Amino acid sequence: HPGNLLRTTDGKLCILDWGMTQRVPSDLQLSLLEFIANLNAEQYDRVPDDLVNLRFVPADKIGELRASGLTVAISKMLRLAAKGGGPAGAMRRMVEENKEKYAAQLSQFDDLDSPEATKERQRLFREDWQREQAADALARGGGAPAGGGGGAASSTTADLTAKIEQLQSENADVFAIPDYFVYMSRAFSTLEGIGLSSDPDYSIVQETLPYISRRIMSDPSPRTAGALETFVFGDVKDDRTARVLSPKRVETLLQGARKYAAATAAVDGADPTLLQPLDTEAAADALLDTLQTPSPLQALVVEQLTLVLAASSRQLWSRLRDASPRVELAGGEDRSLLGLLVDPLGLFRASRLVENDERDHKALEAARRLVEAASSLVGGAPADATAGPDGEGAANAEAAALARALVRKAWERREHIPAISRLFLVEALDQTAARLGRGR
Predict the structure, then answer these.
(1) Is the pLDDT of residue 298 over 70?
(2) CA 356, CA 173: separation in Å to the nearest integer?
(3) What's the whole-number mean pLDDT along residues 91-96?
(4) 166, 148 in Cβ contact below 8 A?
(5) CB 3.0 to 4.6 Å from 372: which of 133, 141, 385, 395, for a disulfide?
(6) 84 in helix, strand or coil?
């Protein structure tokens, strides 16, 4: 309870009573990491697998879980809870979402909060809820959906615990509450209750983001690598021929890592820079450190940088070719002068090697948005850089400053360049082979 938790003057957490404690084994830590990464990435379709890994559902019962229709109820419950504000905040968001969703059906009411409008909105919601559960169960090969519910609670964690206990009592053949959950839910509900007492919109899931960010960017475990890919790629993470980084998720991940670094720096007595942008020197060092250190993050950065560099090269070639004078050949064939000089036989005119596809365009757009986001993450652009109305000038200035810092620091670390170059070469060959293998 809150009385057993103190914040020391040097910023550490002091726990007074260790009477109820439990050690969390490493495999369960990774399962929790995957689960929270899926919540942050809004990958609710992975909830059944998470529940098996977290020991709520036996592995041989996952088919029954998927067929029960419970995944819809659990996913909706987690989506609302993850945004913070406790049960009241979750209910507030649900009401606002439903007002917007059923705007047409509720247009007859002058006051959407009137008892009559509220009753009609709740009726529409119940019908949709039951229909979605039934559709999900039928799509997965099951029968009628199971029920769910819950009561009032002082924290989202406590509210979820009550709902999970009700799910378990109504679906005992599928659900089981593991021993560790009793301890963990009490710890989380206590911490969340403290947070909600000072911030009515507090989200304990969002507060775990700094640690999650740091862990999935530095842990070499294959399961952590999977959590990282889920976070930045979403539901296409397993398709290496199609996946492209989500700029929004990458920015969220980097912001979380910065917050973690700032929080630990404050505890260590250093000057925290929670809201301060990284300077270009530190950003360049961080990127080069990543490229030098074997890890899931290194593999991901090499893959996506190779993709963007190749797409940029093809885009540049297309622009130069299109700007080149046209030459009319015998037989009436029309070609660019540049294309004729480089490829006189026209062997590569329709090749995937020289034309960007949908994934390439997505990668270039993602890169552009990440460069724009860099102006808030990375500082150090020239003071006289002028930004356009959309901030493009500032973003380009930041990118140019970072590029200069990278070139300088790469030269300082030139003994590592051959090894890093081999990584990019191997990845480029793999992507080229996959590109040719897909055909046009």
Answers:
(1) yes
(2) 52
(3) 72
(4) yes
(5) 395
(6) coil
- Contact predicate 70/146, CB 8 Å: yes
Angle at 205 between CA 200 and CA 208, to 5 degrees: 115
Mapped onto helix, strand or coil, the DSSP state of residue 22 is: coil
Which residue is it, tokens 């593991």? 178
How far is C-alpha 380 from the geometric centre of its chain's CA atoms?
27
- H/E stretch holding 117 reads helix 115-139
Share of the chain above pLDDT 90, in %: 9
Residue 63 has pLDDT above 90, yes or no: no
Per residue in 342-376, pLDDT (tens digit) is 877 777 777 777 888 888 999 999 988 887 766 66
Please name which of 187, 196, 182 lies closest in space to residue 154, comparing C-alpha atoms.
Answer: 196
Residue 23 CB partners (closer than 8 Å, separation 6+): none
Q: Check: CB of residue 11 under 8 Å from CB of residue 266.
A: yes
Confidence of residue 186 (pLDDT cuts 50, 70, 90): confident
Q: Is 109 left (phi over 0), alpha (psi -120 to 50) or beta?
A: beta
> How many whole angstroms from its chain centre is CA 331?
54
Closest CA to 189 of 336, 5, 335: 5
Query: Residue range 390-411: average pLDDT?
Result: 71
Angle between helices 70-82 and 115-139 (to 10 degrees): 130
The full DSSP string for 234-256 is: GGGTT-TTT----HHHHHHHHHH
Q: Looking at residue 90, what is its pLDDT?
A: 64
- Write the DSSP assignment of 353-407 as a string of letters: TTS--HHHHHHHHHHHHHHHHHHHHEE---TT----TTSHHHHHHHHHHHHHHHH
